[in-house]
Amino acid sequence: MPNITLTVNGEKMTCTVAPDEKLLDTLRRLGRTDVKKGCGEGTCGSCSVLIDGRLMTSCIVFSARVDGAEIMTAAGLGTANAPHPIQTSFVKAGAVQCGFCTPGMVLATKALLDAVPKPDVSQIKMALDGNMCRCTGYVKIIEAVQDSARVLAGENEVPHE
After folding, report:
1. Terminal alpha carbon distance of the chain
2. Please, is 154 exposed, middle or buried when counting C-beta atoms within 10 Å of its C-beta (0-12, 13-18, 19+)?
3. How far apart are alpha carbons 59 and 17 in whole angstroms?
4. From its phi and psi, is residue 63 left (phi > 0), alpha (psi between -120 and 50) or beta?
5. Are 23 and 48 in contact (CB under 8 A)?
6. CA-to-CA distance for 142 and 160, rounded, in angstroms?
7. What pLDDT digit, counting tens, does each position of 20-75 carry?
8. DSSP string for residues in 3-64
9. Does residue 128 contact residue 108 with C-beta atoms inside 8 Å?
10. Who's near 57: CB < 8 A, 6+ residues apart?
11. Domains and CATH numbers, the chain
């Protein structure tokens, strides 16, 4: 079984993986429970991570294929005590109901705003297309993305609690 090296949320680590092991399973084995296990087919977005800055569903990526990669999970974006503005916007908009899709939605938002700092609604919908939410109906999520864009552009102030 091969050894691979990953940098997960800034922490470099080496681990042994089976040739057919998916990145989702590797990350969860390494304690990254913010990466959710949903469909296992790459369609729900719950397991989304950023791999070298690119949004990917980790349930369809072989771990051995990302040897040497930088992986960011939602926990690497911010913490409960020091949330990223995107995370704050999701909470403020009420876009976090059950929370299962939230890590993937937050990372999809980051990937979108890194590429398109001021997206329109159609661009937001396209960017979130690979993420399923069964709770919010997406209205609050779209509002959260719009608020995130304004905050990151310096147009809205992030509330301090």
Report:
1. 48
2. exposed
3. 14
4. alpha
5. no
6. 22
7. 999 999 999 999 999 999 999 999 999 999 999 999 999 999 999 999 999 999 99
8. EEEEEETTEEEEEE--TT-BHHHHHHHTT-TTS----SSSSS-TTEEEETTEEEEGGGSBGG
9. yes
10. 42, 43, 45, 47, 48, 130
11. 3-77 (3.10.20.30), 85-152 (1.10.150.120)
Q: Do you know the residue count of the chain?
A: 161
Place of tokens 């310096």: 154
Beta bridge partners of residue 72, listed in sequence order:
50
Mean pLDDT over residues 100-119, rounded? 96
The radius of gyration computed from the CA coordinates of the chain, to the nearest angstrom, equals 16
> Cβ(54)–Cβ(61) under 8 Å?
no
Tracing tokens 């990917």 back to the chain, one arrives at 56
